[in-house]
Design brief:
This protein is an alpha+beta fold and 386 residues long. The protein has 12 helices and 18 strands. Helix 1 packs across helix 11. The model has no long low-confidence stretch (mean pLDDT 95). Bound molecules: adenosine-5'-triphosphate and magnesium ion. Adenosine-5'-triphosphate binds next to strand 15.
Length: 386
């Protein structure tokens, strides 16, 4: 089999971990090229070549396609129109059509609803008066969302009272918006699913996600749910994979309601933060799985070999700038992954910590406690110039 050159749109931490996985598969992938606007992006630091340009820059995407055999992406805000128009010699996965459906949250929810998947009530918002009218259907509080280019909750505004309506609309005035009924969920969960180019589908066991200020703080693998919910979440994820076109890993976020129903929140057409635990907890990491999927290889095993807790390391709120390298005490069950970003910024994802239950105690509370203890010891210190 001829080796391939892999092009990735986006070279942040996800592109970095995809590059590292690719380097372990030299019999299939000879080189990785990323397109990213930040010079010396995380993926470039681990050996990817880099085209420095905006993710949506048409010339840069075409250049990437000329240099690559297969193209994938680590962000959903890519330019699906340009990807769709590329020369047939390069394969893009997940397919640009799927990216187009997913990258607009309204189109995505409609697609899910039309295919019979349970979602929260939602509506398109086209004007301030439209917002005023549609809020009546849902009642307060409601969630106003931008349809595109949102991440880490930055495109969400929870409207608690009528007085906040104008502020909320003004926040996103330049963008197209949608409205969602707020779910008073019991838990947020997600399933990392994969589909290869031959149609083989596999899912990792459902995990539990804890957010703080709209940013993922911790993932607990497996989620503390009943067997019934575990199976139901997997079934939904598999059915979603059946209706989506293209190959790759997808992160499927769901809400578990107070009466134990699962609602699909959103799909990410890429490797997902809640799948980082697989680097140590599973035989196949989500990054290797994604590459296997787009290369048309048989998918790897997805069983959870050990329980695990993943903790994100975010930039501290009172610090911005270059920082001294972060080090922690080395232990068999503790894995620190820093993304080598040059500059820390408040709430920026700087790295993650995996605590793995190597002794199979299955004591999740203890794993959470350990993760929090270690994370709280991590401090960002201003880098002293040499
Ligand atoms: P991310 O990049 O973290 O996946 P995002 O910016 O694309 O997120 P969402 O996933 O839509 O945005 O929302 C972020 C978080 O806001 C969710 O994980 C959830 O905690 C909360 N949220 C979003 N929609 C709702 C809703 N309808 N009801 C209750 N909470 C919600
Ligand atoms: Mg989300």
């Amino acid at each position: 089999m001829l080796t391939k050159i892999l092009g990735i749109i986006g070279g942040g931490q996800l592109g970095m971990m995809l590059t590292e996985a690719a380097k372990k598969m030299p019999e299939y992938i000879s080189d990785v090229i990323v397109l990213d606007p930040t010079k010396n992006c995380p993926a470039a630091k681990v050996g990817a070549k880099q085209i420095i340009a905006d993710y949506k820059n048409k010339n840069a995407i075409v250049e990437l396609s000329l240099q690559s055999d297969i193209i994938t992406y680590e962000i959903e805000s890519g330019n699906s129109e340009v990807l769709e128009s590329l020369n047939r010699d390069v394969t893009v996965n997940p397919s640009p059509a799927t990216l187009r459906t997913i990258q607009d949250k309204f189109v995505q929810k409609k697609f899910l609803q039309e295919n019979g998947f349970p979602v929260t009530d939602f509506a398109l918002i086209e004007s301030p008066s439209d917002l005023k009218e549609k809020i009546k259907l849902f009642g307060y509080p409601v969630m106003l969302k931008t349809r595109r280019d949102a991440y880490d909750g930055r495109g969400n505004f929870k409207i608690e009272r009528p007085e906040h309506l104008t502020t909320a609309y003004k926040r996103f005035e330049e963008k197209s918006m949608m409205l969602e009924k707020i779910i008073n969920f019991k838990m947020e969960v997600s399933v990392i699913a994969a589909r290869n180019t031959k149609g083989q589908i596999s899912t990792y066991p459902v995990v539990e996600n804890i957010h703080e200020e709209n940013i993922l703080k911790m993932t607990i693998a497996p989620a503390r749910v009943s067997k019934k919910i575990l199976e139901e979440s997997e079934r939904i994820a598999k059915e979603i994979m059946d209706v989506l076109q293209g190959a790759g890993v997808f992160g499927i976020e769901m809400f578990l309601t107070q009466d134990d129903k699962l609602l699909v929140n959103e799909i990410a057409p890429r490797v997902h933060n809640s799948g980082h635990h697989t680097l140590q907890s599973s035989a196949t990491s989500q990054f290797e799985q994604h590459l296997r999927a787009i290369l048309g290889l048989e998918l790897g095993k997805t069983d959870l070999l050990h329980y695990a807790v993943m903790c994100n390391i975010l930039g501290p709120k009172d610090f911005e700038g270059p920082y001294e390298p972060i080090k922690i005490e080395e232990k068999e069950e503790v894995y620190l992954k820093m993304y080598q970003k040059d500059v820390a910024k408040p709430q920026r994802k700087m790295g993650h910590l995996n605590i793995v239950d190597v002794n199979d105690t299955r004591d999740i509370n203890n794993l959470i406690k350990k993760a929090e203890e270690i994370r709280n010891k991590i401090k960002f210190r201003k880098q002293i110039q040499q």
